[in-house]
Amino acid sequence: ALAADGKTLFTANVPVGGVSQLDLGARSFVRRIDVAPQTEGIAITPDGREVWVGSNSGGTVSVIETASGRVSATIPDLGMPYRVTISPDGKWALVPDPEGNRVHVIEVATRKPTGTIRGIGSPRGVDIAGDNRTAFITLGPEGEVVVADLMTRAVLARHRVGAPPDGVG
User: Fold this and answer.
1) pLDDT by residue (tens digit) across 2-49?
2) Confidence (pTM)
3) What is the reported pLDDT for 167?
4) Fewer beta carbons within 10 angstroms: which end of the chain, N or C?
5) Closest CA to 20 of 5, 6, 35, 37
6) Is the pLDDT of residue 162 over 90?
């Protein structure tokens, strides 16, 4: 997860269950933040104040304050939070759960799930367009990308893309 300043990078460390912060300008390691087991999906808010990271085995997303490196919240019951993305306006977080065949929609300010996008198949990657409303979701085994409306949770289109896609941007 690259901060808007282009100099601060956070990585999810799958085997050790943490997050590393790097200073790209100085080409240096800043710190490791212990979070939860098997962290993988990671995103940073547009203002750079929070990093959201999923624990595949814990079924949680932890919210880390970037200034202190402290976990300020843990959102439970998210199945397998494989990836995380945050809308350009910082209002929504989307968390694909490939084992539950759904994408969780979470309001960033309250850290509360507000619904899910269901019935699409097994989601892997997810990104949100600049309109802060349209989501693009890759479906691994299905070999598709789904376009969904975040407000209605409706699928707008499905596109075949071939070999199992993972990330999207």
Assistant:
1) 999 999 999 999 998 999 999 999 999 999 999 999 999 999 999 999
2) 0.95
3) 85
4) C
5) 35
6) no
Neighbours of 144 (CB within 10 A): 19
Burial class of residue 141, CB neighbours in 10 A (0-12, 13-18, 19+): exposed
> What is the C-alpha to C-alpha distance for residues 20 and 64, in angstroms, rounded to an integer?
12
In sequence order, what are the residues at sequence separation of 6 or more whose Cβ sits closer than 8 angstroms to the Cβ of residue 27? none
Alpha-carbon distances, residue 47 vs 67, 68, 89, 123, 160 (angstroms): 12, 15, 9, 27, 34
Give the sign of the dihedral formed by CA 122, CA 124, CA 80, CA 131. Answer: negative
CA-CA distance, 167 to 148, in Å (whole number)? 16
**Residue 83 CA: distances (Å) to CA of 67, 79, 118:** 23, 12, 16
Contact 104, 97 (CB under 8 A): yes
